[in-house]
Write a structure and sequence with these properties.
The protein has about 400 residues and is mainly alpha-helical. About 60% of the residues lie in helices and about 0% in strands. It contains 18 helices and no strands. Helix 12 runs antiparallel to helix 17. The radius of gyration is 22 Å and the shape is globular.
Amino acid sequence: MPMVTTAGEPTPTRAHRWWALGLCTVALLGKGCKESDSMGSTDPGEFDHAAMLENLSTNVIQPAHDEFLSAADELVAAVTAWQASPSGDTLETARQAWRNAMRVWSRVEVMQIGPAAGPSAPGAESLRDEIYSWATVSACSVDQQVVSGSYTDPDFIDNKLVNVYGLDALEYLLFYEDTDNQCPSASSINRDGLWDELDADTVTERRAAYAVVVAEGVATRAQTLADRWDPDGGDFGGLLATAGTNDDSVYENVGQAVDAVYAGMFYVDTQVKDAKLGRTSGRWSECANEECGPQFVESAWAQHSLENVVGNLEGLQLLYHGGAPEGDGVGFDDFLRAKEADSLATQIGDAIAQALTVAEGTSAPLVDTLSDDLAQVEGLYDAVKAITDPLKNEFVIVLQVTIPSVGKGDTD
C-alpha cells in the first residue's frame, strides 16, 4: 500500500473574501458581520462562550479521550493474548478489539484540539498522528520493520516515523494474512532476498510481536492524551474554557478557543467529505489535478472505512450539540440560536442526523461499494456535503469563527 498524503487546500482569494461579505449581508438580513481573523473574532454578546467550552471539555472531549484509553488498554490485552497463544480465536478477538478502538478513535478524530492537534495549533503536541496517522500510511515500511526487527528497540516508536506505528500500522499487522509483503521488487527486502529468508511461521511470529509493541505505544499515547485533559492532570479543558481570562491559557481570547473547536469540526469537510468519500469516488474538487479512486480508501486491510465515517459523524454531532442531540448540553446549536439563527441551527443538526442515517445504511465494505454501487457512496458524499456547505459558509458568518488554514479557499 503506497504512502498517501491528502493534498493541501489553496489560500483564500480576494474574490472569496468579497463573496463572504456579500453572503453575510444576505444571510443575516442586514444585521452585519465582519470577516474572521486568525486570532479569533467571536463577539461574546449575550452568549456564554465559557459555559459552552466548559461543557464541551467536561462532557464531550474528556469522556471521549477516557473511553479511547479504555479501548486502547483492551486492545493491548487482546493483542498480547494473540501473541502468547496464536489461534484463529485469539486473532479474531484482537481484531475485534482493534475495531472497537478504531470506532471510538474515529469520534476523537474530530476533536483534534490542543494536545492532539498539529504543530501550528495552540497547545499542540501532535498526539493525533502518534495514535493514528492516516492518510500517511505505508504497509511497505511496516514490512521493512518486520525484516529488520527494529520494533524490538525500546525506543522504536520514539525514533521512527509515524507510518510504522499507530492504529493504522496495527491494522495491517492484524488483518493482512498472506505472508508476502507490500514493497516493490526494487526494495532491498525483495531485491536482496531478505524477505524470502523468513519462513511463514517467522513472519507470523514477528508480526505478532511487532503488533504488541504498536498496541502498547497506542495505549501509552492514549494515556498521555487523557492526562492532558484530566482536570487533575494537565486540565487542558480548563485552559480552553478560561481563554481570555486566564493568563495560563494557550488561547489569547475566547474567539481563538472557539476557533480551535471549530477547526476540529472542520475535519468532516477536508477528511470525511473530500478525502474519504470524494477522493475515492472521484467527487473531490481536486480530482482533475490529483489521482483519485478506490485505492485511496481509508481502511484497506480491515475494511472498516464506513464505520470510521460513522464515528467521525458521531464525534461531530457531539461537538455540535454539546453532547447527545436530545440532551441539554450547551453546544454550537445553542450558540446559533443565541444569534437568532434558529433555522440554521436546525438545518445543520438535521443534516448531521441524516448523514449518519445514510452512512449506516450504506453497504460495506466501502471499497466494494465504490465498484459495485457508486451511487450509494455519492449519496453519502452529498449527505455529508449538506453538513459542510453551511458549516463553512453561513455558520462562519453568523458566529464569526475562523476557517482553518487547511480549508481556506475551498467553497465546494
